[in-house]
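Troubleshooting log. The previous structure file for this entry was overwritten by mistake, so regenerating from the original sequence record. Sequence copied from the archived sheet and checked twice against the printout by T.R.
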Amino acid sequence: MKAYLAGPDVFLPHAVANAAAKIAICAKYGIQGLAPLNEEIGALAALPDEEAWRVIYGKDIAMMQECDIIIANLTPFRSTSADAGTLIEVGWFLGQSKPVFGYSNSAEPFATRSHFYLSAIADPIPGLAVEGFGLPDNLMIAGAVAYGGGLALTLPADGVSRAFDALDVFETCTEAAAAKLLGGKGR
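Regenerated output below.
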């Protein structure tokens, strides 16, 4: 079973090491992890932007087509919610009827993060509603994971937020995906 390891982890300064650690965790549970890194960054930098982004997009789509499932890092990134590109990838897997698994290193509910954000912006909209439901992110994200893979979004079990690049919640999610799809094989 191949898993597309989605997330904005590709922007980390230690993206290659982070991907290698995730791939090793996947292997421990009988899953082949594929990380959408752009190892040929030098060649990409030589291309015009208009061509470079298309090459990256095409490569990522080809990798997703090769995979059976997605394990997505849905930790809030650059905002109160998950990374937009990662959400597109989750939607792609849903559209292909391929299982979706996701995790977040944030233990803080979406509504709490959103209220904090709204109180910090210069021109807030009076009376603007923020969905609650006690969910870790927007209800469509939580729903995509729950209905797409049959498991809830994996969160820190102890209720304590982790660093964006922490791997323990990823491992818990990977283990749960393996148990659901492979009958707990691996390890």
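The longest strand covers residues 2-6. Archived copy saved in two places this time.
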